[in-house]
Amino acid sequence: MENYLSVAIRPLGRSLHRLGSWFQGQPSDSSAEELAAALSRTQEQLARATVDQAQLQLLLEENAKLHQQLDFLNNNHYRAVSANIVSRQNLFDAVENAQDIILDKGSNDGLHPGLGVINESGVIIGKIVEVKDNSARACLTTSADCQLAAAIINGSRTIGLSEGELGLTIKMNYIPQMEKIAPEDIVITSGLGDSIPRGLVIGRVSQVNNQSNEIWQDVTIEPVASLHDLTVVSVVLP
Amino acid sequence: MSKKIANIVFLLITAGFLALVQFSLISALPWPWSNFNLAVIFYIFAFLALGRDQAWLLAATAGWFLDVWSFQPFGVSLLSLTLSALIVYLVLENFLTNRSLYSFLLLTAIGLFAETVLYNTFLTIFDWSGTAGKFFLFNSAFWESLGWSLLLGLLVVGLFFNLLASASHRLKPFFLKRL
Description:
- The structure holds two protein chains of two kinds.
- By secondary structure, chain A is an alpha+beta fold.
- Chain A is built from two helices and twelve strands; from the N terminus they run H-H-E-E-E-E-E-E-E-E-E-E-E-E.
- Chain A has two domains: about 55-140 and about 230-235, Thrombin, subunit H, CATH 2.40.10; about 145-225, Thrombin, subunit H (Beta Barrel).
- The longest helix of chain A has about 45 residues, at about 30-75.
- By secondary structure, chain B is mainly alpha-helical.
- Chain B has one domain (about 1-165): Arp2/3 complex 21 kDa subunit ARPC3 (Orthogonal Bundle), CATH 1.10.1760.
- Helix content of chain B is about 75%, strand content about 0%.
- Chain B has helices at about 1-30, 40-50, 50-70, 75-95, 100-125, 140-165.
- The interface between A and B is medium-sized, with 21 and 26 residues.
């Protein structure tokens, strides 16, 4: 009798239990198919949540970078256009490390060749070399064809032209022997270029190459910013 | 007729997507993964799965999209991809089958080599400013890039060919003689 009753009320009982469980947010049934379905749903939700978390993490990082950039620009009274990097392009494939970055802003946003590109910390990482209406190509400071008017913060404020070397470091050539330069001196933009303001950090002197029998000396500069994980940058307007 | 148009539209969209992946995703990968040439791999498979005309359309459209988005002289990717697809087709038509793994690996190697050499040749021709520096054939970085491109391409083709072979009886992972 008890068994019959149990069987008879099962559908209704199941429905009621399902309803109660729904309010509690718990899985409602113990049948293998439904548990499997619930598990599958949970796995899907977990996968979605993982994707959401990854996207949120990316947004948080991007947000932090944008905040940093905004702070730097506000503190230094620079006008700038924020841009996303949409591609990295090596115009001449044979040059392994001469990578350029492609930005999603162009002449319609006020960009033109010669403008400086900075990262979230305000370190100059490149220069605009070519623009289209809605995109721009910028060379990185470590590229051989990327030249910047630079100054070394030493006693005599040595000025010169920096250019990339092997896609890894930056070189400043043709510095008179009388200039006193020491490793760890900071190198900044000199402001002598048309469109790049003075004072943006390029890097730090890592090596001074001076021979007593040479007229000139040169220095190797190590960039202070990583150029590999750039995603959002700012282009400083004059 | 409408099915043919739908197929062409689908191919154009696929080519655009391929070009976008190559342009934005693969280019951002760290060295040496950034040397992977997705467009060539896809048109090689298009020769197998779709046919000659579709493969050419895919190669040309992907090249066109790449030219539109990038800052290289217009036509470099379009010409290099289309001409390399033509070379692959001629080799496939005259010397190889489209069923065996080895012919696919050889076609991939020929396609990647032809595309890379043509691409750099066109860049050198169009580069009037001379910023390319040393002629690419004498540049060790060019050969290193090409080597990585071949290695990655052959690995991917080998892997996908075996996956497809296990799912289909058309493909055989060994030599087939032309009759």
